[in-house]
Design a protein that fits this description.
This is Phenoxybenzoate dioxygenase subunit beta. There is one protein chain. The chain has a six-stranded antiparallel sheet, with helices on one face. It is globular and about 60 Å long. By secondary structure, it is α/β, with parallel strands linked by helices. The protein has three domains: 89 residues, Elongation Factor Tu (Ef-tu), domain 3 (Beta Barrel), CATH 2.40.30.10; 113 residues, Rossmann fold (3-Layer(aba) Sandwich), CATH 3.40.50; 86 residues, Roll (Ubiquitin-like (UB roll)), CATH 3.10.20.30. It contains seven helices and 18 strands.
């Protein structure tokens, strides 16, 4: 982990703060590409992930923007309570939501704070001279972080704002209309509230968007329509030691690993962030996450150990640990 200080704190919108982070010795931080995030270990010990919301104009600084979520489990509230000068631990940047290609025509769709990973994508595509459209959905300009900045950006001509509280001007985005104009030739990137993403993905699937051109990043798990039924007990095998461990019906794999002093990092516990992603050597997995794509789930080579389980009662999953 890297120790950084809060160098600046700015209110970007109602309930959204932007933090500028940097090392105390003013040295450079690791570089990153659009779509990346960092893990932040807060003073309480909570570990959370936040998207890097701007490309680095100076290698000494990272910027994140965080919404104070009314349903927060403590992370966003603690971030909002940080002050200039406070120290936190961060990871090197990780990227589970990269641009597939800087040269591919792209459609960016943000819902609320989901704008944060998409803003660096727009910067990257603009610098590359790649055609793109950026649709930003929110309640109002007052609650939409960076809306005034984006109206003045070098790619302002590619911005489309949709504010649901202003039906006389922009109003809600017509998802089907926007998607149908780009299905033949663009990559889709969407981020925002879980239900917003799910709605966009459903429309994209109905319109025939190929899965390999649809990219999304959830910040929280959506309400699942799938009934997984009652949990059942199963076993896991640790490949490096041959150890076979029992996972009870009321346990997650990560709980059992921790009880046996086998460390796998975990954060969201909802199958959203990918922190606990683990390679699978053998076994049939019942995937309960929103992180892996349908294709990746079908391949069965990885699983989110915080939430996913064996398909069958008494099944055995061998993990590459």
């Amino acid at each position: 982990m890297i120790e950084v200080a809060v160098l600046n704190k700015v209110e970007e919108a109602a309930a959204v703060v932007r933090l500028v982070l940097g090392k105390a010795n003013d040295s450079a931080l690791p570089p990153f590409e659009a779509g990346a995030h960092i893990d932040i270990k807060l003073p309480s010990g909570l570990l959370r992930q936040y998207s890097l919301c701007r490309l680095q104009s100076d290698p000494r600084y990272y910027e994140i923007a965080v919404l104070k979520d009314p349903q927060s489990r403590g992370g966003s509230e603690e971030v909002h309570d940080l002050s200039i000068g406070d120290l936190v631990q961060i990871s090197e940047p990780k990227n589970h939501f990269p641009l597939r290609s800087k040269e591919a025509k792209s459609l960016l769709i943000a819902g609320g704070i989901g704008v944060t990973p998409l803003l660096p994508m727009a910067q990257t595509l603009q610098c590359a001279g790649t055609p793109f459209e950026f649709h930003y959905c929110g309640k109002s300009p007052r609650t939409a972080a960076f809306s005034s900045v984006l109206k003045q950006a070098s790619f302002a001509d590619k911005m489309h704002f949709h504010f649901s509280s202003e039906p006389q001007s922009s109003g809600r985005m017509d998802i089907n209309s926007v998607l149908s104009q780009h299905v033949a030739d663009s990559d889709l990137y969407v981020c925002g509230p879980a239900e917003f993403i799910s709605s966009v993905l459903e429309h994209a699937e109905a319109l025939g968007w190929p899965e390999e051109r649809v990219h999304r990043e959830f910040f929280a798990a959506p309400a699942m329509d799938v009934d997984h039924g009652d949990n059942h007990a199963f076993q896991i095998k640790v490949a490096s030691t041959g150890q076979v461990l029992d996972v009870a019906a009321n346990q997650a794999i990560t709980d059992v690993l921790e009880d046996n002093a086998i460390f796998v990092p975990v954060s969201c516990c909802e199958g959203v962030c990918g922190t606990c992603l683990t390679d699978v050597i053998s076994g049939d997995v019942e995937h309960r996450d929103v992180f892996l794509s349908k294709k990746e789930k079908a391949e069965g080579k990885q699983m989110l150990t915080c939430c996913s389980r064996a398909k069958e009662e008494g099944g055995l999953i061998e993990l590459d640990l």
